[in-house]
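Narrative progress, year one. The postdoctoral researcher (J.K.) led the effort to move from monomer predictions toward full complexes, under supervision of the PI. The following entry was the first complex the group processed end to end, covering 664 residues in total.
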Amino acid sequence: MPRWLSLVDGPQTLGRGPAFWFVLGVIVLVAALLPTFVNAFAITNLTYFLVWVFMALGLSLIWGYAGILSFGQTAFFGLAGYTYGVISINLGDAGLWTWFALLLSLVLPAMLAILVGYFMFYGGVRDVFVGIVTLSITLVFETFMAQTAGPEWTIGSARLNGFNGMSNMPPLTFPWGENPIIFDGTSLFWLVLALVVLVYVGLRILVNSRFGNVLVAIRENPERAEMLGYNVRLYQLFVFVIGSVLAGLSGVLYTLWGSYITPSSMGLTAAALPIIWVAAGGRKDITATLFATVLLTWLSQQLAVKGSQYALIWMGVILLVVVLFAPEGLFVTVWKKLRDGRRMRQRATAPKTVSLPSA
Amino acid sequence: MRWSIAHFLPHAQMTFLVEAYAFFYQLADSFAFLVLCGLGLAIIFGMMGVINLAHGEFIMCGAYVTVLSARAGLPLPFAMLCGTLAAGLVGLILEFLIIRRLYHRLFDSIVATWALSLIATQGMLIVAGPSIEGLKTPFGSFELGEYSFSVYRALLPLIALLLLGALYWLFVRTRFGIYSRATIQDADMARALGANTRRIYSQTFTLGAALAGLTGALYAPTITAVPTMGQAFIVQSFVTVVVSGADVMLGLAPSAAVLAFIQSLLAKSYGQLIGQIGLLMTVIIVVRVLPKGISGWVLQRNGGR
């Protein structure tokens, strides 16, 4: 196995070896070239599907790898979106200010996550109660934002605008002499795609490192991990912060994509969606989560033609079927079936020799 | 009907009394709401450790059936009975089909009930539309000073207390109650002694669902039934149950009382939404300070079970 592969491949992820990465590379390449084949509308849609991936990957890390079920990832999503809105509307799109707004929109969720995570993990809040605390925070945030309709709820020149949400924030702009680069349409798509690749590979490295192994050890048995000398709470806090920053990244990109953000993007229904994507694909594998998220957001959009209720019903049905019949997630179950089938065939056809474990 | 004590009392005292009563009315109303919301959820959580995120939808089911059967011509009490039974029946079926398979998988049971909630809400939206015509609140209202109070809503706290009493009787005096408490304490031992724990779980879930249905039925005349109403109820239910802890009989009433006080106080000074936020903040703090809720705290002080 080449050296670089041992960084990104390992026991904590399905799919390994040059062939797997070659296929992924082709998929990314095709995606990157798509803007030359399809129209702008399709690209805008595609961007929308990719925007959610970060929140899902973050939840997969928190829930699937570390065993902490957070219902409240949309709180970080919303916080980041609103932060970008407030900062960018106040500072405008001159110079690098939109990038400053982007940065700050990731720092604030990180700070909130540190606060909440410290409160929970160092305060002995566990299991279901983590879900209750995170969901409560989300609902507090949603309720608060929903009541900011009045003109007194203004930060600088940005009106929070209550239930209707904020809009008209400037897009990411990079100063480039006479004509600055504005990230919308195709360029936003490329930016989001690049970020997806970056975050995916980064997470592959993270979960297959020593850190990832410890996370899984904590998921399987926190007491045992603690007895073995690992600082369980610190690991949990760290992973919670990473997951929340990723949710924040989704929030900023969503805000940039539609140039609006509303309180309902944090509410109960919105909070259910990441859980569905992650559970449906397979929460213990980031590749499954990645593809499930894109597929399900696409499917939701297709189904929502007649109204969002039709999409949500099917999301509910998918979730229910997965929990009952493929608790590991659809993609992971299918992948493992195929892999085991292949191994069985190999074993059946292979000549009977004693194989020594290679050093 | 009109009360006119105003004739007997000087104005200043009268105003004070009316204000005090208005606050008390608000408090009792909140209390009733929290108790009624929490009951079904608390029984299912306390007995089986299953967090039923579809609880709000059982309430919705109760409300819808009540409204529809009342509009079809049934007298209100019978319509409410229909709502309760319908929710109970749905609970029985869902327990048999789904919940039963997930008893030892905590996260999965939460996620599955969340899926059910989504399906029920959106399904109702498709079947019945965004809202249905409501019922008239029975019994009219009475006036005190410049306020007008609904008689029906003033009765709800009494009904809540009666229900708590009935459940106490059910769990302490009946065969079902003894079996079910044995099952909570040690399911394996209860099974070894001949209790059919599977049936007890099924009955408990049905009871919890029926109680949720009853809550929906009781509130049906006071609100407009909409498919998403479950969401408004479930937050309150959760808050009450988390603060109460697993032992319904011990924790629910104190928990509802404390929360009702916090909510009424905040709502009176800053408005409904801040009251709601106050509730949620309380829950976050309670989870941290008393992770097993009020009942867990009381039991611990008394040396546990």
